[in-house]
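Q: I have 282 residues here and want to know how they pack in 3D. Can you give me a structure?
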Amino acid sequence: MRHPFLGTVCVAAIAMLSACADTTDESVERAIQNVNAVDDSNLSDIMLTVADPNEGVSYFQRTLKDHPDRIDIQRGLAISFVRAKRYTEAVPAWTKVTKHEDSTANDRVDLADAQIRAGKWEDAEKTLDDIPPTHETFKRYRLEAMIADSNKEWSRADSFYETAVGLTTRPAGVMNNWGYSKLTRGDYAEAERLFGEAIRQDNTLFTAKNNMVLARGAQRKYTLPVIPMVQTERAQLLHTLALSAIKQGDTATGKALLREAIDTHPQHFEAAVRALRALENT
C-alpha cells in the first residue's frame, strides 16, 4: 500500500528539484546579463575617455552591428569620430542619432558642433535654429557665438559669448574665443582684457597668452605682460611679439626681441634664429 504513496512523493520531489534548477538557471542567467551590462557600460566609458579615439570608433562600429537600435552606442560612435578628428564621418553619425526616437536637444547641439568642425557652417546654423530657445546650455551658446562671429554679427556674438560665460564654471576657453573675436575686429584693448581674464581662469592656456601678446603688439606695447609663464613660453611669446613688431614696421625692436627670445630659450630656437637671419640679410 505504501508504494503508490512513495511514487507520488518521489515525483513531487523531482518536480520541485526541476523547478529549483530552472529558477537557479534563470537567476544565474540574469546575473550574467547584469554583469555583462556593467562591463559593456564600463568599456564604453573607457572607449570615450582614455582609449585611442580610432580604437573607440572600431569598438562602437562592432557593437552597433549587434545592437543597431541602441542610441547610446550610436552616440558613442559619433563622439568617437569627433575625438578622432574624423569630422566628415561624425556629421552623418550625429545625424543618425538625432533621428532616433530617444534623441534629445543635446544631440542636435552635438550635431551642430560636428558640422562646424567639418566646415559646414550654414548647416550648423540651421541645426541650431531648429532647437527650441528654451534649451539653454553653455555649448549651445558657445556655438551660437561662433556662428555669429563667422557672419560678422558682432552684437549677437557678444551677447552669446556673455551668456556662455555665465553658464560654465570653466570659462577660460570661451573667453579666449571672445578675445580673438575682438582681436579680429580691431578692438585690441578689449581683446587684451579678455585674454587676461582667460589666463586668470586657466594660467596653463598658452593660446590665450600668445593671443594676448598679439593684442599688445597691435597696440605697439612691446613688453610681455605680467602673467605666469615658464622659460620656454617666455621665449615663444618674445618671438610672437617680435613678429608683431616687424609687421608694424618696427624692425629694430623686432630684431632686439628676436635676440632676447634666442637668449631666453633653453634650447636652440630655430624659428627665431631663422627670422633674425632673414632680417639681417635684408
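Q: Anything worth noting?
A: Residues 12 and 29 are 26 Å apart (CA to CA). The longest helix spans residues 2-47.
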